[in-house]
Amino acid sequence: xxxxxxxxxRQFIQSIPHARALGMQITALDDGMAEITMPYDTRxxxxxxxxxxxxxxxxxxxxxxxxAAVMSHPAAPAGTATIDLRIDYMRAATPGQSITARAEIxxxxxxxxxxxxxxxxxxxxxxxxxxxxxxxxxxx
Amino acid sequence: xxxxxPEPVQVVKxxxxxxxxxxxxxxxxxxxxxxxxxxxxDELTAVLSFDEMLIGNPILPAIHGGVTSAFLEVTALISxxxxxxxxxxxxxxxxxxxxxxxxxxRLPKTIDFTVDYLRSxxxxxAYARATITRAGRRYASVQAEAWQDNRARPFAQATAHFLxxxxxxxxx
Lengths: 140, 172
Fold this sequence. Notes:
Strand content of chain B: 25-35%
Radius of gyration of chain A: 15 Å
CATH architecture of chain A: Roll
Strand order of the largest sheet of chain A: 1-2-6-7-8-5
Number of domains of chain A: 1
Largest interface: A-B, 37 and 36 residues
Number of helices of chain A: 3
Number of strands of chain B: 8
CATH topology of chain A: Thiol Ester Dehydrase, Chain A
CATH topology of chain B: Thiol Ester Dehydrase, Chain A
Oligomer: heterodimer
Mean pLDDT of chain B: 92
Distance between the termini of chain B: 45 Å
């Protein structure tokens, strides 16, 4: 990521209170692609017995990452809103590890961007969750 | 023929409220988001108290889509778990003191979750209720709806599938 893009990415995350609350950081950004990391945090535990992060926090990460991928596309300069998002939870994220989501636009029309996303912890082989979503495209 | 005397109202309320508080209080993420549950008999309504930290679009401003999604998932999960333990709780098979002391039932696991965003979430409190459309021994289907000002104008709805916890006897 160029220094310029990194600065824009940092500002983007800093401007979203909930992304800040979850400690999200953009680690890669390209036209129609974004990668965001969320550190492990005990406040986000969903299963007290195992310490596994709640699925809802993974949803928030996927949604932010999908939105960032759309906003990074030249055809959507004025932002985006999620129309729908489907998440498949493949396995529990390992407690103590950060989760990284990567989202990509696989098709974009004048009004809609279709996005796929994958979330992984430190074991990059087996995804924690995958998602597909439709996002609005707001032209300038 | 003698009928069993109904339990005193305080006993009933105390048992149900203590069990619900234990179920909800055991999950850190629920308090992180500021979600509470309102109970009427066995019916639950989740309440998301507005906080600046929940904002996802500071310009509108609007609640973060991920928060809305998480709110619906928490509502679906707790409602399903609550319905699952209800009969054992009422019959006395499930011990409330044990629950309160931290012996919580295993929660269902989310298999998949689909959320439709119908309108933007306004910077104010939100409410949600879940309907269990199928509760099988292994799998359950749950629908949930969230609204703010008007119950008839939901701002998001969700469909979810869950894997039910195994009965304690056959557990790992």
